[in-house]
Amino acid sequence: MKLRIFTEPQQGADYETLLTVAKAAEDLEFDAFFRSDHYLAMGGSDGLPGPTDAWITLAGLARETRRIRLGTLVTAATFRLPGPLAIQVAQVDRMSGGRVEFGLGTGWFAEEHAAYGIPFPSDKFDRFEEQLAIVTGLWATKPGDTFGFDGKHYQLTDSPALPKPVQDPLPVLIGGHGATRTPRLAAQYANEFNMPFASLEGSARQFERVRAAAESYGRRADDLVYSNALVACVGSNDAEVARRAAAIGREVDELKTNGLAGTPDEVVDKIGRYTEIGASRIYLQILDLDDLAHLELIADRVKSQL
Questions:
Q1: Which helix (H) or strand (E) holds 35?
Q2: pTM of the predicted model as reported, rounded to 2 decimal places
Q3: Hey, which of 171, 234, 246, 257 would disulfide with 101, CB 3.0 to 4.6 Å?
Q4: What is the rounded average pLDDT of the residues 45-70?
């Protein structure tokens, strides 16, 4: 089981904060640093000092880290055209020496689109599917050949399909709760399937759908990595767990039910249950980015037991 750090900067974090967390995650030998792709705070947060762009952030981190893998959970397809997005991701992969992983999703948060003048189409999933075909098709095109695409939403003509990522293939992550189209697209395009904020039972059901879809598509079910994203709130004792829960505005019992909360041994036990259903990566959603001692505790007393 690999543990990855997953941040939500739209809730209030500048680049320097993200850099500090990414470097701490690297020093503590977590497997990866991921971030969300949002422009508007959610819930009661004021979002200060304001949003940061996911791929600009990752470009900076690519040059200021050396080992840790970097990615999005997940890039919103509504924010960017697929051709320029393929260029951006490939460039950041080259800037990092081949450490990028590309999570792509439909985009869902209507209010952030309205706040920043981004179109929010009703046919988001159809556009998402075309974006997957285009981005992966551009990367897969051999140097010297051209790529074309004639879809309902996007058309590309005689694209040189450059630049190429360092990684071939660059890992693609798809996730979500959808019962039919999501597993099919994961089977067709993804290296990893992620189940965000779901119970053991819900995750097991969705993993089985993805496995079946992969086999229907002619792949081995185990060709894909299966992962979960879960909020983390770990303390060396009950009082510390309660303090960290209060700092992120959550209740301990709710966090224990819906996330990875409790003492290190409690969290290790729950991670073990996700391992049993096939997960091999956990994205730890870290909501208090100033609490680096939280990362140190997880590294020392959770990660060390896995």
A1: strand 32-35
A2: 0.97
A3: 171
A4: 97
